[in-house]
Amino acid sequence: MAEFTTMAELIRHAMHHDELQRAVLSGAAHGTHSPWRRVIVRKVALRHAVQTQVSWHTETTVVTRNYPTAGAVADELADVPFRNAHVELRSATIEARVTKRGKLLVSQRNATNVQPLAHDRVRERPIPEDAPFLEALGVSHDGIVKPTAQRKYRQINEFVRILDATLKGRLEPAGTLRVLDLGCGNAYLTFATVHHLWQNGVRCSVTGVDRDAQAITRNNERAQQLGWQDRLTFTPSLIERYIPTENPDLVIALHACDTATDDVLAFAVNHDVNYVLASPCCHHDLQQQLRSRTMPTAFRDLARDGILKEQLGDIVTDALRASLMRVVGYDVDVFSFVAVEHTPRNNLIRAVRTTGKADKNTEASVRALTSMFKVSPRLAMLLQNRLPPGLLAHNPRLSEPSNETR
What we know:
Largest sheet: 8 strands, mixed
Helix content: 25-40%
């Protein structure tokens, strides 16, 4: 048996061993911390080859990735301060643990560990792990998504699925789809949109807008690195001050903070945008207007405790946003963007412009909701010239200038 002085040496040896069948690494060495409670390594049979599957377990989630060989993940595993290791080779089993004093104890016994290959069902994802833009953004390395970027990778794939469902059957066979990402930030979804549309034969011209000049410079450099400067550009601006050269067909805004989502929706309406995908973030503006003493008696307990008031503010804000968009001629639905364990702000507002007008029930709902909670939604102020006369006559903010900046 080889001599090992550290757990990292043992792990590297095992991952590069020709006879490796399975390994279970667990716990954190004394005085260290790791997000991974347990990692399981095993061989799997895919459609075209045998690969090594690694399942990274936290206290609440499991992240699973496939590698061409166990050696490809050796350094990544060796960097984690595991306390225990159980390694199954074809002809031996190795057990190891790190004591409180940092000493590595290793034992090995002869054993027959020939395991039948597990068959791994590969889930089809619209954005493959080896998409070049993922590496440019730091999401992947050598065609494999990093464990720390798995949540972002899931978010990217969920977004393009929603994008597909939104545009399906609605695009003209020729022409260029003009896309605008307002508040693009690090632009993960902006790059994903460009990649996915072009890969599926949809010509597009995409612009990302953000007030962070450093992020804009970095994103433009990445677009040039990928050779996408003819289809993707970034420009620094506040949302409410941005003036497009042409009206976009699609506006996206993911996790735009507080009233920035209202600015995005108003921008879309005022520029006759056909499709809007907006994922709101915090909702401070309307939450701060909620007052227990001004609510109907039956609702006062909902504003007494901070957490309930916050959740109520989220719901009322997005309900009013959806209704106001319906009033000005959009079909709207609100649904979960990604599972809540991947991001706490997981609602998405999807609006598709129609030629119809809202029915009286929608207008009545807006009147009732704003009157009941005594709130003045910012979106109503921004759209006051598009709303039916008298819809929110009691709203004190409708007298404010509609081009107010944040």
